[in-house]
Specification:
Structural class: mainly alpha
Radius of gyration: 20 Å
Shape: elongated
Number of helices: 13
Strand content: under 5%
Largest sheet: 2 strands, antiparallel
Helix content: 40-55%
Distance between the termini: 58 Å
Number of strands: 2
Length: about 250
Amino acid sequence: MNIRLLADGYMKSNHLFEDFKNNNINLEEPYFSDEYVSLAKVPDFPIYMGKGKERYKKEEFIKAVKVIRTHYIETPRDIHLNGKFWHSLLITSKRDYLIEKYPQIESEKEFYNIILKKFDWENYIYKCVLAAEYIADAELSSTNEEEKYINLIYDNLDVFNYIIKYEIFRNAKFLINLLDIIEEENYSSIFKKRIRDRSDLGSDERYGRRVIFELNKNYPVILSPFMEKDDLKEQVKLALSLYYNEE
């Protein structure tokens, strides 16, 4: 299937929302460039997990990562890490699916919040694309192993969100090792906790975020993104000890 890419400046259009809502998107309109991306299949997948019960949101996240892993990250990185590609796919090929699944997008505010959201760490497609890419790069032994780590990513989404803000941590080895450490040391609930009684920190600091902050601060003196798991575990414990007292 050929996906025609939107032209630069599409976010500033005064009519794109109304044309999408009224099913008046025309590929010959000035919204579009002359560029195309070809994919064998473009299956539907959840693109928004901002509302609903936790179990439902987790199921949607896992489903999205699996579909993206199988069908979309075969494209070059400058395609699947480009927001214009995903916005183009949603606008041109997914209207009926999206309106049925997310009827709130008939509000202009929700349209821009769900469909045309900036492609960064706050965008759910962006999170799922990176998760799918790391899972693929890790070359895990089975689909069960892949599903295990997708679950671990979601269960530690706050830390994952923080990791993907730092380019140096964007490698599969580091992520898999860190998820293993969190599971082995039962850090998940600790990492999610808010740090109390530290007036020198922000009002909503979490232990997991500060661990990643410390690892980043110490780079490149300490090359934590490239360490073997046991060495990384010692650095994680050291970073956590700066903030967390078991007593």
